[in-house]
Structures are given as C-alpha cells and as structure tokens.
Amino acid sequence: MSDNAPPPVQIRADVLATPAYRQGAAPTKAGFKLSSNENPFPPLPGVLEAIAERSEVNRYAAAAMPELRAQIGAEFGVPGDHVHLAAGSVAILYQLVHAAAGAGDEYLYAWPSFEAYPALGLASGAVPVAVPLTATAEHDLDAMAAAITERTRVILLCTPNNPTGPALRRTEFDRFMARVPADTLVVLDEAYREFVTEPDAVRGEDVLAAHPNLVVLRTFSKAYGLAALRIGYGVGDPAIFRAAASVSIPLSVTGIAESAARAALAPEARAVLSERIAVLAERRDRLAAALRELGVAVPEAQGNFVWIPERATGGVPDALALAADFAAEGTLVRPFAGSGVRISVGEEESLTVIIDIVRGHLAQLGGAA
Ligand SMILES: *Cc1c(COP(=O)(O)O)cnc(C)c1O
C-alpha cells in the first residue's frame, strides 16, 4: 500500500492533516547517527545486569515504583509522591497538556523547539501557540509573556532549547514566572540539564519550591543513555500528577526500565555518568568552536547537540541541502526545513567528519557562510 493511501475507516480530518512523528531514516552507508541526541557510550555499569535480573516478564510491574520515585525525589529535596514516572518524558508532556488544556484552550511554547510540542494538543483540541525564538535562538520570554491570554493553560519552556542549544538564565526565568498567572501550569523541560555548563542557567531543583504551578521534566533517555527503555519523570505538585495519571495510559513504564533507572542512579554508575557528561560537554564546545571558525553562527550550545542556523541568522542557505550532504556521507543529522540543522554530539571520530562536510558544503557555495 502506498504511503499516502487514505485509511479504510473514518478518521478525524484534523488528525489526517497532521503528519506523524518521523524518526530519522537509517543511513545508506556506514557513518554516524547524529540525528536523535542519543548517548554514544555503552550502558552505565550495572544497567545490563539489572535488566537481566528482571526476568519475570510474564508479570505486570507494580506501577507505583516507590523506591525509584523516592530516589529521584531525594535529588530535588522532595518526597517520592512529588515524582511522576512515564514511558519517556514526552509521555508526561502529553499527559499534562491533555489534563490542563481542553478544546479551544491554548498552550504556549517557543519555536523552533522540541518537535513533539506542536502535536501535543491535537487529540484534545487544545490550540498550540508558538512564539518565535530571538535572533540568537533563545526563548523570547517577553514575547511569550505577552502571548499569555485567559485561555492559556500550559506554558512549555525547553532548557537548553532543543534544537538550538541556549539555556534559560535563572534571572530571566524568575522575571518570566512573575508575569505568569499563579494557576497556569508551567513545564520546565530539562531533557538535557545534565549537559549544562553555564553557571547562570536555571535549574529545576532551585526553583521548584517557589512555584507550585511548576513541573520539571527530566529523562533517562539522553545523558543516562537509556533511550531504548523509555523512561522519564516529572517533579512537582502531587495533585498535578494525579490529574496527569487520570489521562495516562496505565502500566506504560516497564519493570525493566525501572530496574535500569535505579541501577543508573546508583553511586558507581553516577561516577561514570559524570565523567561521560564532562567528555560530551567538552566535545560539544570543541565542535561548536570549530564550526564558528568556519564562519557559522552556532548559538550557545548547552545540550549534547549543536545548531547550524540558516543564513538569515548566520548560517547556511538551506538546511535540507546541508543534511543531504551529510546523508551522502552516511551520517544522519536532523534538518528543520527553513530554520537550521541540529547535529548531536556523538563519537569523538564524528567531529572531523562533521567539520569536513560543513567545510565542503560552504566551499561549494562559494566560501561564504
Ligand atoms: C528527548 C527529549 C524529551 C524526552 O525524551 P523521552 O525519551 O521521551 O524521555 C523531552 N523533551 C525534549 C526537549 C527532548 O529533546
């Protein structure tokens, strides 16, 4: 059947009009996969053993997972009932938007940002409101505050912003929160928090207590390298999470994911984790510097990825053309048509490949970035 054949049953017109999430295609020749911000390292010590021990795959896992939630809560100085688990933090984004924003209500986010945001309201009929980033690829918090209406139910802040890289500063976050109604849910999506090296960046742990309307999201998919197991978490008010649970798909977090996450939080794994994060952050800074040396205006990079903008903001003329040059070499990156290309920080050997491809791309265009 062709890819665009209509379904044989009646489907909502708004759903038909919305393309499904598409994972980056498999490379055609051996190269690097730098399209999904994945961790290039093997599993943390203890993780594979924990998975192997979880052999009762015929049983549903006990959904409450109190030990893991308490372990996470301790990091934030809150009890385990302030921690909500789901099959990836993207699942919590869906739950929160569904729980808070009904048909005709609005939810607000910066753009470009996480590709999942525009579709979060589709099933409930909530209206996505996207506020363009600044010229330096940061959240325009003044414009976002100005875009709040009496229908705004959820505000998503992505820091560091995927795909562009800059992190929100603590001072600008505080100023923004003072302009948000106290009964409007704010979600601080910190999927890449572990990679942040900017000392003035906001940190969920530091601001949660001051804002009962704030939920902090983190994930085991990126720094912890457990993307395939699908487990992420939110930290915030237990009553908000009871509402999220009401609209969640039950029993989505597997026992295997629970065991792996607990192993990843154990002290031996944490020590290795910190070393790997430092390696990736240093590699990121080196990659960003090398690209800037080629004349590309790479914005501040605080996640495990760098952003090559399109020319209007100091980069290449066509994101898709640059991504095609990468694909021709077997390396996958993530293009955002009309705005730029996101390149994940992966293996050390990928750096010279990236720099060579970008240099070649620019030379082919006549040298100028
Ligand atoms: C990767 C990512 C997530 C969530 O990943 P999960 O694998 O679902 O936990 C959430 N937010 C952003 C911005 C991301 O890039």
Automatic annotation (TrEMBL):
CDD domains per record: AAT_like (cd00609)
Gene3D superfamilies xref list: Aspartate Aminotransferase, domain 1 (3.90.1150.10), Type I PLP-dependent aspartate aminotransferase-like (Major domain) (3.40.640.10)
Gene Ontology MF term list: transaminase activity
NCBIfam families tied to this protein: PRK03321.1
Cofactor: pyridoxal 5'-phosphate
Name recorded for this polypeptide: Aminotransferase class I/II-fold pyridoxal phosphate-dependent enzyme
Originating organism: Leucobacter chromiireducens subsp. solipictus
Xref: SUPFAM superfamilies: PLP-dependent transferases
Keyword annotations from UniProtKB, A to Z: Aminotransferase, Pyridoxal phosphate, Transferase
Signal sequence region: none
Pfam families given in the database record: Aminotran_1_2
Residues of the Aminotransferase class I/classII large domain: 32-356
Homology family: Belongs to the class-II pyridoxal-phosphate-dependent aminotransferase family.
InterPro entries to which the protein is assigned, alphabetical: Aminotrans_II_pyridoxalP_BS, Aminotransferase_I/II_large, ArAT, HistidinolP_aminotransfase, PyrdxlP-dep_Trfase, PyrdxlP-dep_Trfase_major, PyrdxlP-dep_Trfase_small
